[in-house]
Design a protein that fits this description.
Length: 275
């Protein structure tokens, strides 16, 4: 397959920081205008994600959990089939969280001390556990970061190999702090907004006992151009993404909640101390 044999107006997602990259062997994420096109992945994970978005988006939805989670999830605009190299690939149309920003600085944080789902076979469990052995104590992974450097006017990018190379004690300084630093400017304004939004997600998880999220991420984006003329509602946005392993439950999602608490602790420790 020629990965670039894409219909007019459709491009490979330009600001992707993690996940499946579109290539000759893999249908990955694409973009068209202000929307992200995410492939419906192989069964059953693709269907699980699509069903999740459909439940969240259902206008007749009566379940309060699916209604409450709407504000934390990109808008879903339905599915479409995209002709790529003589195949009709099934894609979901999603709100592009980065598009309101002039110079989006992005990180993908995979949340949870366990990334394999309850149906995972022993091989998958071993494979997932080996990716970041200290995950049970850390509760989240940095899968990617993209930061706009205001000194060089370039983006600097870090991948999941970098994220997983960090010891737990370095996830602050060499991870999250690095994400919030542009040149020699540490973005306290952004930090405060991120903490506020993660707390709202944490509050949601303290109440809901319907869904458990494995291998799901928080996508964090902030405005990297401090002189941007674009009107933005917030200097940063925190959204939940990647729902291939969402399962029904009747309990609190302690796995996800644990990761959120650690993240909040790390971010809060970065706030300048008042004298
Ligand atoms: N709604 C969105 N708006 C903007 N960027 C997005 C959006 N959804 C995904 N992305 C970008 O694409 C990347 C991968 O997304 P996602 O995790 O959903 O893909 P995936 O292929 O399922 O990943 P994985 O292989 O980890 O399961 C994100 O890190 C982000 O950079
Ligand atoms: O965290 P990473 O390094 O991005 O790893 C991938 C990610 O966890 C995917 O969600 C997972 O697919 P599943 O959703 O199917 O588990 C994939 O597993 P795979 O290699 O078994 O496809 C991993 O490689």
């Amino acid at each position: 397959m020629d990965p670039l044999d894409l219909p007019e107006g459709v491009k490979i997602l330009s600001h992707q920081v993690a996940g499946h990259i579109h290539s000759a062997t893999c249908f990955g994420l694409l973009e068209r205008g202000n929307i992200v096109l995410k492939p419906v992945q192989r069964f059953p994970k693709g269907n699980r994600e699509l069903e999740f978005y459909e439940a969240v988006n259902n206008k007749n939805q009566t379940d309060q959990v699916f209604i409450d989670i709407r504000k934390f999830v990109p808008k879903f605009y339905g599915i479409e089939y995209i002709p790529i190299s003589n195949k009709n690939a099934k894609y979901m149309r999603l709100e592009d969280i980065t598009k309101v920003f002039d110079r989006p600085c992005i990180t993908d944080l995979k949340i949870g001390k366990q990334t394999f789902n309850p149906l995972a076979n022993p091989d998958k469990i071993i494979k997932e556990k080996s990716k970041y052995p200290r995950l049970p104590e850390v509760g989240f992974q940095i899968l990617g970061m993209r930061i706009y450097d205001t000194v060089t006017n370039n983006y600097v990018q870090y991948d999941r190999v970098y994220g997983r190379s960090l010891a737990p004690e370095d996830l602050g300084d060499k991870g999250l702090k690095l994400y919030l630093t542009q040149g020699n400017c540490f973005r306290v304004d952004v930090l405060k907004e991120i903490i506020k939004q993660i707390k709202e997600i944490r509050d949601f998880f303290q109440n809901q006992t319907k869904l458990s999220f494995y291998s799901s991420s928080l996508l964090v984006v902030y405005e990297g151009n401090m002189k941007a003329k674009k009107q933005i509602p917030n200097v940063a946005l925190v959204k939940m993404i990647d729902f291939a392993h969402v399962f029904s439950t009747q309990e609190h999602d302690e796995n996800y909640a644990f990761g959120l608490e650690i993240l909040l602790k790390l971010f809060t420790n970065m706030l300048p101390t008042k004298i």
